[in-house]
Automatic annotation (TrEMBL):
PANTHER family, sorted: GTP CYCLOHYDROLASE 1, GTP CYCLOHYDROLASE I
Family according to the record: Belongs to the GTP cyclohydrolase I family.
Pfam families per the UniProt record, alphabetical: GTP_cyclohydroI
UniProt name for this protein: GTP cyclohydrolase 1
Length: 210
């Protein structure tokens, strides 16, 4: 029924992945030591001795995503025009304005029209885009774009519910504040019933997880 061209067994374009920064671990270690000093701390006291190296190692692992995160598609001829919603994609990212953590809970919906995205890959795609200095709005769009490319169809919708520590522990200090973002393409934009079905399913899944 969908008029969008579906590419069976399509794979995401490896070239689409945004370039990853290279972490200069020794430099980060030195800078964290400097930061401790600038904050009035003594980096030689027992509890802080290994902190710079530990923080640098964390940055390195946070910014080095799993290289196997390329989406895999299966050809499934029986899956015609079926709404698939994958939820529970919980990832930690870092807000680029404050460099504070944000917890992002994503739901991806698409119409399985001949191509089914391997379920286990969604989490890895989400993790790859979370492992960088990020904005929730951009993360939502990147996730939608990657799935759109992988399945070769515009019929993709993504919702993300985010809890931002920059809102919870600084500024207005609203612990329960949540930010929700939606990116809808293809028929999710033009078909109100489909859009409603997706939002209902992703919200139900969210309530179930709470
Ligand atoms: Zn922030």
């Amino acid at each position: 029924m969908s008029t969008n061209g579906v590419r069976p067994s399509a794979t995401a374009h490896p070239g689409r992945a945004a370039p990853q920064p290279t972490v200069d671990t020794p430099r980060v270690t030195g800078l964290v030591r400097e930061l401790l000093i600038a904050l009035g701390e003594d980096p030689h006291r027992e509890g802080l001795l290994d902190t710079p190296a530990r923080v640098a190692a964390w940055w390195c692992s946070f910014l080095s995503p799993d290289p196997s995160a390329m989406a895999t598609c299966f050809t499934e001829t029986h899956a015609s025009d079926q709404l698939v919603v994958v939820g529970g994609l919980n990832v930690w990212s870092l807000c680029e304005h404050h460099m504070l953590p944000m917890k992002l809970d994503a739901h991806v919906g698409y119409l399985a029209d001949g191509t089914v995205l391997g379920l286990s890959k969604f989490g890895r795609i989400a993790q790859r885009y979370a492992g960088r200095l990020q904005m929730q709005e951009r993360f939502t769009r990147q996730l939608a774009d990657e799935v759109t490319t992988a399945i070769g169809s515009e019929d993709v919708a993504v919702t993300v519910h985010g809890v931002h520590l920059c809102m919870s522990m600084r500024g207005v200090r609203m612990e329960m504040a949540r930010t929700s973002t939606v990116q809808a393409g293809g028929r999710f934009k033009t078909d109100p019933l489909l859009s409603q079905q997706f939002l209902t399913l992703s919200t139900a899944e969210l309530r179930g997880a709470a």
